[in-house]
Design goal:
The protein is 34% helix and 33% strand. By secondary structure, the chain is an alpha/beta fold. Strands 1, 2, 3, 4, 5, 6, 7, 8 and 9 form a 9-stranded mixed β-sheet that branches. About 10% of the residues have low confidence.
Length: 220
């Protein structure tokens, strides 16, 4: 699908939503495909091991990506959503879950989880999901490929004295091979996976270095 094809689909979706009764019926009748993403499972072999407990907070995000809809930016100033396709949950919840699983998969953290599981943390990971959308590329491609943008800012908070020990942003842009949903989702998965790998490795190293400079027993 070309740039104009994407624009037509998005415009048609908006136009249909304006006819409240008919639009509601059509949206209810149209099947919705649900998509999920995967955690990162491969990390640098040289990562230090942490004897600490970490809580991953749900990322904050602006309203355009704090949704289960798959966002597309046809212009730098506009957000639209792909029709009849959604994430299995809101994007920040998906990222939180996959970050937890990725930390677990590293095998370098004593315990990691959400604050809702009553884990008493030594460190908190507070993040902001700043980009999680597809964009039309600057130059139109024959196969309608999209740019996938993922950007996350992480802050690590020492729970012992409640101060930030590190802040860093991680981002990745991937091109989907085409505008087919299967290709778009794989590109999202690759972009998020590469972003999470760097975020997890940086977090583990930052916490380890902080612990070396500030020795004290981990909270229990």
């Amino acid at each position: 699908m070309t740039r104009w094809g994407w624009a037509s689909v998005l415009a048609a979706t908006l136009a249909l939503s304006g006819c409240s009764g008919l639009g509601t019926l059509n949206r209810a009748a149209a099947p919705t495909d649900l998509y999920t993403l995967t955690p990162k499972s491969t990390f640098s072999s040289g990562l230090p091991r942490l004897a600490h407990q970490i809580v991953i907070e749900e990322p904050t995000a602006h309203a355009a990506v704090d949704t289960d809809q798959i966002a597309v930016q046809p212009t730098p100033y506009q957000f639209e959503y792909l029709p009849v396709a959604r994430w299995v949950d809101r994007a920040p919840v998906i990222v939180q879950t996959l970050l937890i699983e990725s930390f677990e998969n590293s095998g370098k953290v004593a315990a990691v989880g959400r604050s809702s599981v009553a884990l008493r943390p030594d460190f908190l990971i507070v993040s902001d999901l700043r980009e999680f959308q597809a964009r039309l590329p600057a130059v139109e491609t024959e196969n309608g490929a999209l740019e996938i943008h993922v950007r996350i800012n992480l802050k690590i908070v020492d729970a012992y004295d409640d101060h930030i020990i590190g802040s860093q942003s991680f981002q990745k842009v991937m091109m989907s091979p085409s505008d087919e949903m299967s290709d778009v989702v794989v590109a999202f998965d690759d972009a998020l996976g590469k972003t999470m790998r760097r975020a997890v490795e940086w977090s583990v190293k930052t916490i380890y270095s902080h612990g070396q400079r500030n020795p004290r027993p981990a909270l229990r």
